[in-house]
Amino acid sequence: MMRTRPPPTTVRAGLSRSPPPASGLTGRSAIGHHLSSMLCPECGGENPPDAHRCGHCGSSLSVAVLEVVRGSAPEKIHFLRPRTYTVGRARYNDIGLTEPSISKSHARIVYGNGTFVIEDQGSLHGVYVNSSRVQRSELPPGAQIQLGNVTLKFSALTGEGSTEQVAELPWIEQQQLLLSLVQALNSTLVLSQVLEQVLDAVMQITRAERGFLLLVEGSADAARHPLVGDLRVHLGRRRGASLEPEDMRGLSNSVVRRAVETGETVATGNAAADPALGQVQSVILMDLRTIVCIPLRSPRADEVEGAPRAVGAIYVDNQETSAPFSGDSLKTVEALARHAALAIENALLFERERKRIEELRATQKQLLQSEKLATIGQMAAGIAHELNTPLTYIMGNLELLEAQPANPAQREMLASIAVGAERITSLAQRLLAFSRPAQEEPVDVAVNEVLERSLKLCHYQILKGGVLLRKELAEPLPRVKGVPNQLEMAFINLVINAVHAMEGGGTLRVATAARDGQVEITVADSGQGIAPEIQPTIFEPFFTTKPEGKGTGLGLSTVLMIVERHKGRIDFTSASGAGTTFRITIPISVP
After folding, report:
1. Which residues lie closer than 8 Å to 495 by C-beta, 6 or more apart?
2. Residue 333: which domain range?
3. Residue-wise pLDDT tens digits, 93-130
4. What is the pTM of this model?
5. DSSP state of 546
6. Among the four 62, 194, 237, 341, which has the fewest Cβ within 10 Å?
């Protein structure tokens, strides 16, 4: 059922009629009395020349509208008062049209004897009224004006009292638009496209000044959209201008709630005089006149209540006109709303299904990664055990050889063998650490002490690489719960990686700090940075950018594993040519 109210004959709330001025001029005869003021055609009251409404009785001072149908700023409406208007491309014109085919001073629209006349001002492309070129012509209601490539439609505002009729889209065109919209809605499941098509169609049919499309709370990306009652504004339009955020405040909560709760269209031609809306703050604040709100209800029954489910609402309003939208346009919009509700619900279902599939894919990827890590762990354990057996013989025989007399050359050879054997031993330990959970019990750890010890072990590599070390260790620093040897291994890996990233030298910054119940460890280098295409994979086991034989690819994966065992997290920032910064955060130990 559609709720409509005829325009009331009473005066708007808060306004009173004033007696006609002493001149005795009343009604239409008072129009154009003098240029320094505007006389109301209804009560004869005097108003400023730029006023849109009478300050005495609230009637509109506009007597016609000029709508841009095609070309510069399509769908923009200019409300015409009984005076002269200049039209052209130059900024000084009353009605500016930026289309290049428009002359700087193209035409003039003059009011006199109750009618508007258009005059050509020597334009290059001429003035056409209803397809005929004219030098001067009266503008009949519904006249089509062609100025260059711009098409305009002239409509007179007529009626009794303060009622104005806005030129809405003709009925046959409404039906054609409705058919086109239904076809368009059937061709897309993208929510943003559906919403834009629906609201644009409603604005075209009703010629409303503002329009909004609201969806039920939690429908899609809810937090990004302003809340109106239990609905959120997902899209807003303003005819002839951009919609500013403050325009949202004039959206009538009461109208939206009534339409959604009753499931019926709410329409009023004079909101200020409507008993249910006249005292609503948003209506008063925005001086709203004509308001229409059509509920969007899904034809699919609600699983709990068994009734059609509320999807949202379409809301349009006017400030300039106080006449209700015509019955034909309301019926067309209500038919449109039925199709729109189903299309919106389908788009929402598609969006939810798409997100669910993405989540399933992410879960599947995590499972595959877990299986991959488990397999790698088993391989790592086997390799480590295979390495340990020959290492035992090598280290034992090496100790025997070192105990024997030898010349300097032999001593140097034994030392190099020892370095190689120690590197293999370290590799075997890292493989074992990666393949199985730590057996050591966590203790309260002084991070700065572990970090200092790690830097001493890396001293030779830092010195050899020509790297300047800059330490910024916070004192005092809270302790963390952890395994010192594991943290030491993580810090060493980060430092060695940083040194290797700075070929030819650079600056290594190592810092600690306490923030928000966490100890933060930072290792930053001034190297070439990590290429964007490989950044997502740097923590994967056996991934390395080093030449074959120069790296195992276990360094960062080991660091990640150790940090996670300590209930911490690691992240990094890197930019090409600007170095890389790794940041570890570990919770502070609670006594």
Report:
1. 454, 455, 458, 461, 462, 508, 510, 523
2. 171-353
3. 989 998 999 999 999 999 888 889 999 999 999 999 99
4. 0.41
5. S
6. 62
